[in-house]
């Protein structure tokens, strides 16, 4: 008989609602899941948002105090979808309370906060899942298999980039995302973890980096704290300083010997969410862009003398595609990836076995981010540290 597991979702903005819908849709796509999520409590500092979310999404209760959700005796698993400055406090408290955690990246404002969460999770022996969901795209999983099988030969080149325009309007509100005490890092924390994790997921560890960063929009209009849950424009108003970076570009050396570039921007006019990679080997190449989520561009020497990429569409037998769609050409979407994430989170708990991506994978990505941050200051190549520092503030 399938066991119920009590769930709390903390932070009921867009991402918290995506998590909640992921739990609700779970059995539509994974009917064999051994745990049935029971939505016990929705938590948000804005009480009215917590109340409305609980009503609309089917939670049994709500609270404006995240501590009540963490301490609730019927809650075994906690989704944390709050702003970055709350990640460490909530995640550490949840782990110490024996709760399993599903946490959005970057798991804190700076790498050290990620390491603190990882130590708490390890000490508590709870399971963790981190929102690095682009790994779960079926054609990305197919790409990983091709690379691992040697189908592209020896990998020599990698280009990973996440170019976005969500902050391209200089009248975009100066929310927590642009402040050191709210977000900590800028794009280094917001989207570089995705780019780094994808690179390491496909090619293995990055061992050294040479990076630069820039803040192109240096002021934005001030808004009251807590206003809005996303990105929005404000006309007029007092201007305040942007405290973190808009752009990062980086050269990387992989332990395998491959060389690459990683680039992130939140103010790049043109692309909307161009989260993409290109891989080149001695016998072939491939490329993927999130804006065409269900398509993989593949080039292979086939002996015909014809040169060029072909489009490979997501199809059954690629990752979990057939859980969502019956045939090639019928597209999956962003929220589907969160359903897969919910499934992997709950099966990890049931099996008592940590699955990827958890805290180990985000720690690995943040070690690279940490090295990039050092390189931006030093102007030189920086080695990537390994593991989690045992003491607060320990260097790489």
From TrEMBL:
One Pfam family, please name it: GFO_IDH_MocA
Keywords on this record? Answer: Oxidoreductase
Limits of the Gfo/Idh/MocA-like oxidoreductase N-terminal domain: 5-131
Molecular function terms from GO? nucleotide binding; oxidoreductase activity
- Domain spans labelled GFO/IDH/MocA-like oxidoreductase: 141-286
Task: Quote the protein name from its UniProt record.
Answer: Oxidoreductase-like protein
Naturally occurring in which organism (per UniProt): Rubrobacter xylanophilus (strain DSM 9941 / JCM 11954 / NBRC 16129 / PRD-1)
